[in-house]
Amino acid sequence: MATGIPDKPADDLTRDEAAAELERLAREIGEHDRHYHTEDAPVISDAEYDALWRRHSAIEARFPDLAHPDGPSRRVGAPAAAGFAKVSHSRPMLSLENAFGEDDIVAFFDRVRRFLNLGADEAIEAVGEPKIDGLSVALRYEKGNFILGATRGDGTVGEDITRNLRTVTDLPKVLTGLCPDILEIRGEVYMRKDEFATLNQTRAKAGEAVFANPRNAAAGSLRQLDPSITATRPLHFFAYALGETSGPVGRTHWESLDRLKSWGLAVNTHARVCRGPTEAIELYNEINQSRGDLAYDIDGVVFKVNRIDWQDRLGTVSRAPRWAVAYKFEAARAETVLKKITIQVGRTGTLTPVAELEPVTVGGVVVSRATLHNEDEIARKDIREGDRVLIQRAGDVIPQVISVIEGKAGERANPYVFPERCPVCDSRAVRDEGEVARRCTGGLVCPAQAVERLRHFVSRDAFDIEGLGTRHILAMWEDGLIARPGDIFRLGGESQNLLEREGWGERSAENLLAAIEERRQIPLGRFIYALGIRQVGQSTSRLLAKHYVSLDDWRHAMTEAQDADSDAYASLVAIDGIGPSVAADILGFFAEEHNRQVLDDLAGEVNITEFEGARDTDSPIAGKTIVFTGTLVSMTRGEAKARAETLGAKVTGSVSAQTDYVVIGADAGSKADKARSLGVEVLSEDEWTRMTGGG
Ligand code: IVH
């Protein structure tokens, strides 16, 4: 950069340089705020955005009198995105499992066959349809009239965008023909490629920011608080699934698509029934070849098991149905120059190498940074600063460096040496046996970790506290006001008058405290997610909440599970979706005194509500612990387990005094004996089927 200032540590800046730098940062932050909040089109990662803030705060702290009255730190949070009401989806809006090659498609059909226990000669039909690269929405029709439309949101709760959806072309306000009284239709809102280009031209002429791709343009247009703006944007809709319906719609997915068409909805014309993996791969290849000719962007082909009764039996795992898979197209690639390798420190202390690139357009998006994964990858691919590299971007995934195309013209730089100290706090960065990542040992004394963890804690999918941005967290952390999560809930205390802090007005302080109060009650799943345990994302958190129901039960079980021979451990790793590695991270969290204190402290401040979710509390097996053993005849073990869980039961692998029922199939061995000796009730497969309403 021309001035050289951006690279200079904040502590070394002269007063004049600091003033210039504050102005530049303020401008950049303002710009990114706008991209993010108003245009739904962030151009940098959260970590990069935070780095701008960190630098801004550091400079302001050194030269407080240079702080500008209108500067970014005088504003609180983002302009209210409050405009939309929340809508709970009557059935969760799921995501899809991805397939990346032909093998994955073969495996998908195999899995379905095994789960349903179908004979080798029984054909499995699946409908293949283009995966539209837009925004998924749910439309509710009552007696044929469109009454409510919502975004997907987190899959459970979305935003009410009914008024905006009314402006979408090909979205009928009234359905034609006979249809169930209650009918929820799901599909994708998208913008056509030509219309996207025209829209961007107009915007560029008017000096407005352009959208990165049709998907962002559609999202930005649909999330306008003023529907009259949405109305000026060319948006379309394809229907591809049903949500809640008051009556049956079809016996197969294909029939449902026909019904949707008959009611006047747009259904994609490239959909086709495929009988098995060979035909599915054929369809994929056809669609892949012609995708350039389509009027809209697609990013793969979705395959859905055609028979609805089979879909019902297959059910869902975690957040995706077992009866569908998305075969994604190959990622877009491009060549560029790697200018520099920098290191990012994440919330768990992981040092991630990042490639700073000469900006290049990949699949319609300008990319200036890409991940290098870890130090072994850099060594394996022998990536050095100044090299010409091949990068790849797939959908929403972070761009990555694939390989070196050629070394730097002239002399190549020396091989990259991975730092052994944390670039943020200078603590030692160590690499544990068998781990690929190097981790900062600074723990909570490392600002990157402490602030990142707190930021995660208040983030949207966790505690969702509005108005407590990274900058505030950093400043409060530096002043010792917030050292651990529980402190957030004590901010309103007498001794901590927010008003005396720089940058807070009466209104902003009141708003923040109100936002915090509102979150004193939180469902267990969100709470677990907020803790930021390594490998425990939203869906794992939900699994844990569903399995353990209350914080006390979970805590208790995790204490017992520290012993790898305990039933508690067996039960933890028996949860579908939790393997030994995730379990190790969860148990590692509980093994640390410091973390247990954080939990105790929080439990005193917030009210953690028990998991209710998908659990069927009326079923006779709700809340019971069940063990399956032996070979089942009418269904596979996986199917039985899924069914039991849907009905609210907990399925474990070993029999103990806590077990309520043991279901025995053919050739049951020692578990059946153990059950009898412990006096646990033993059920035959038939008895179990009757009890759970089947057969
Ligand atoms: S079916 C239960 N069909 O892909 C399955 N999804 O990665 C529900 N999408 O959130 C989705 N085209 O936004 C389905 N023909 C199609 C689709 C499609 C695009 C999107 C949808 C979903 C995402 C999952």
Name the helicity range: 25-40%
In CATH terms, what is the architecture of the domain at 86-328? 2-Layer Sandwich
Largest sheet, in brief, is: 5 strands, mixed
In percent terms, what proportion of residues is strand? 15-25%
Using the CA coordinates, give the radius of gyration.
Answer: 27 Å
Description of the structure:
With 695 residues, this protein is α+β, with helices and mostly antiparallel strands. Among the domains are: 86-328, DNA ligase/mRNA capping enzyme (D-amino Acid Aminotransferase, Chain A, domain 1, 2-Layer Sandwich); 523-615, DNA polymerase, domain 1 (Orthogonal Bundle), CATH 1.10.150.20; 619-691, BRCT domain (Rossmann fold, 3-Layer(aba) Sandwich), CATH 3.40.50. Helices cover 35% and strands 21% of the residues. It is built from 23 helices and 26 strands. It has a five-stranded mixed sheet with strand order 2-13-10-3-9. Strands 16-15-14-17-18 form a five-stranded antiparallel sheet, with no helix packed on it. The longest helix has 24 residues, at 15-38. The radius of gyration is 27 Å and the shape is globular. The structure holds 2-(butylsulfanyl)adenosine (IVH).
